[in-house]
Design goal:
heterodimer; A: Rossmann fold; Rossmann fold; 2 domains; six-stranded mixed β-sheet; four-stranded parallel β-sheet; B: TIM Barrel; 14% strand; pyridoxal phosphate (chain A); TrpB-like_PALP (chain A)
């Protein structure tokens, strides 16, 4: 049994392409070409060159000595926070901009919540000199002003999504509508392992460089490629998909997915999809999603904008349903406390998304000899104001 | 024979109207349907509102949000339509997005439609292959016609595949757009209408998107069997309420 996507884009019962016919030609063009293009030597060469020289890969696998001491286990941090633009998101946008060029597209659209994926998309568009439009919820634009400014400085146009709840879900709807209206010249760079096939698989493959590196880096440090556990936070789930990718079919490697409980699972203000979601269709994918009894998609809540999504990528829905992955949900307060602890024990201020992954030690006990790799998906610069307000710094 | 198939056999160009159930007011559903039939409309798409209507432009989005806010939901729509066949004879089609149908239960949904006297279903985000593998038999069992969409970008091969699976009409999206985005037809649309007409499909085509008045209705139905108006009607309801639906329809058929 494999935990990867099959050729129709299904992970178990999850995935597929539940899209209106208007999107069929776009997705079909991508589906027919993505694996072929990703296998072309000219593509892989340019992709890896840019990851090395522009993004700054490989990112270090760092042994966190003081954290390990505190929790009495061997903790390694995969330093995606050191990527250009401050998070793993750029691995995917580099891959997709090259894909767009191969497909002959001359216009890029993207959605963004906190602005990280928007910035990563605007960055690669500037790099390649391609027109870029980023959709962002009107509410997110107001609360993420620095990232809006970064996108503008990089030459992107930021368009406000004013429909629905005016956050990430609606920004995604608007980007999809743009793609319906511009089916020929435009490529849509989705920022996570969500959306219709082939996006979840394609994005996971671009992010798989994370676990590809962990394997040889761990071999150097521990004499073995496989850790006992790999831990990542999950919103849509792209950093997690990349960190798990080469371990999905290695049953001895424990997979731990950390979701945002928000103010608590039962408070009505949460984004813990595995706990609160039911099978449904969101943004063209069959997956677990938070919805009313009537199938209307509901608005999630998390202090971290990057985990504030009512669904989860189909890969993760399958990891949850099959029991292959262990899902833990962490509240705002637990995440913030863990973020402060990592800052003071290791001198690394994590993004609040990532802070959730550091808060699992109250819920999950590890053996002293266990090797636990935590994907440090992003840095906390963008979250400084939230940290300041929370801790009254 | 299903009411849709009977209607398609009539020797005339068909006018079909879409409206969002629960808009402008929660209990307008039945009276809007009755007024439309009285005004001479041939077929009606009753929109089941959804929180995230991907294929729709602002007009239908806003009507959907308002309808949900008014309290519309699947079971309530079925209750409102329970006695609709006592007064209305024209074909009725439920149009919406697949997730609410999935949550209701596809078989339960189809069974309810059959009991009420709904003739067909349009779920733009239920893909052809999934329909065939999982749901076609259920639709058939309850005598429901599934309507598929095609667009100017749909390949001939896929159009023929859709034609094969369809047993009513093909919903021909006039241009690459969301609903209500563009109005009027240029040379590109005319070429597309001609191209589809020349394929000699077994199912007649009804054109939707971009039709808002008598001129666009005429242009759309020059080759096709009929046309669907959605956003323009919703806008009319927003501005004029449900009182004078007759005059909206008269202006189209004029």
């Amino acid at each position: 049994m494999s935990y990867h996507a099959n050729e129709k884009g299904y992970y178990g019962e999850f995935g597929g392409a539940f899209i209106p016919e208007m999107l069929y030609p776009n997705c079909e063009e991508l589906r027919q070409n993505y694996l072929k293009i990703m296998a072309e030597p000219s593509f892989t060469e340019e992709f890896h060159q840019l990851l090395k020289d522009y993004v700054g890969r490989p990112t270090p696998l760092y042994f966190a000595e003081r954290l390990s001491e505190k929790y009495q286990t061997k903790i390694y941090l995969k330093r995606e926070d050191l990527c250009h633009t401050g998070a793993h998101k750029v691995n995917n946008t580099i891959g997709q901009i090259l894909m767009a060029k191969k497909l002959g597209k001359n216009r890029i659209i993207a959605e963004t919540g906190a602005g990280q994926h928007g910035v990563a998309t605007a960055t690669v568009c500037a790099l390649m000199g391609i027109e870029c439009v980023v959709y962002m919820g009107e509410i997110d634009i107001a609360r993420q002003a620095p990232n809006v400014a970064r996108m503008k400085m990089l030459g992107a146009e930021v368009r406000a999504a004013k429909s629905g709840s005016r956050t990430l879900k609606d920004a995604t709807n608007e980007a999809i509508r743009d793609w319906i209206n511009n089916p020929v010249d435009t490529h849509y760079i989705i920022g996570s392992v969500v959306g219709p096939h082939p996006y979840p698989d394609m994005v996971a493959r671009f992010q798989s460089v994370i676990s590809e590196e962990i394997k040889w880096q761990l071999k150097e440090k521990e004499g073995r490629e496989n850790p006992d556990y790999v831990v990542a936070c999950v919103g849509g789930g792209s950093n997690a998909a990349g960190a798990y990718f080469h371990y999905l079919d290695e049953p001895k490697v424990g997979i731990i997915a950390v979701e945002a409980a928000g103010k608590g699972i039962d408070t009505g203000e949460s984004a813990a999809t595995s706990a609160l979601g039911k099978v449904g269709i969101i943004h063209g994918s069959k997956t677990l999603l938070m919805q009313t009894q009537d199938g209307q998609i509901t608005e999630p809540y998390s202090i971290s904008a990057g985990l504030d999504y009512p669904g989860v990528g189909p890969m993760h829905a399958h990891l949850f349903r099959s029991g292959r992955g262990e899902f833990i949900s962490i509240t705002d307060d637990e995440a913030m406390t863990a973020g402060l602890e990592v800052s003071q024990l290791e001198g690394i201020i994590p993004a609040i998304e990532t802070s959730h992954a550091f808060a699992i030690f109250d819920y999950k006990k590890f053996e002293k000899e266990d090797v636990v790799v935590i994907n440090l998906s992003g840095r906390g610069d963008k979250d400084l104001q939230t940290y300041i307000d929370y801790f009254k710094l | 024979m299903n009411r849709i198939q009977e209607k398609l056999n009539e020797d005339k160009k068909l006018l079909s109207i879409y409206f969002t159930a629960g808009y402008p007011e929660i209990n307008d559903t039945v009276s809007i349907i009755e007024s439309l039939e009285e005004a001479g409309v041939d077929m009606i798409e009753v929109g089941l509102p959804f929180s995230d209507p991907l294929a729709d432009g602002p007009t239908i989005q806003e009507s959907s949000t308002a309808a949900l806010h008014n309290g519309m939901h699947t079971e309530l729509l079925f209750e409102q339509l329970r006695d609709i066949r006592k007064t209305v004879n024209i074909p009725l089609i439920v149009m919406g997005y697949f997730n609410p149908m999935l949550q209701y239960g596809v078989e339960a949904f189809c069974k309810k439609c059959h009991e009420i006297g709904i003739d067909g279903i349009i779920m733009p985000d239920l893909p052809l292959d999934v329909f065939q593998e999982e749901y076609e038999a259920i639709y058939k069992k309850y005598g429901l016609i599934n309507v598929f969409l095609i667009t100017p970008q749909t390949s001939e091969e896929r159009i023929r595949e859709i034609d094969e699976v369809s047993d009513g009409f093909i919903y021909m999206v006039s241009s690459a757009s969301t609903t209500g985005a563009k109005s009027g037809f240029g040379d590109e649309q005319k070429a597309y209408f001609d191209r589809i007409a020349s394929l000699n499909l077994k199912n007649p085509q009804i054109v939707g998107f971009g039709i808002s008045n008598s001129n666009t209705f005429q242009a759309a139905t020059e080759k096709a069997k009929g046309a669907i108006i959605g956003s323009a009607f919703i806008k009319y309801l927003t501005q004029n309420g449900t009182e004078n639906i007759q005059s909206f329809v008269e202006n189209i058929l004029d």
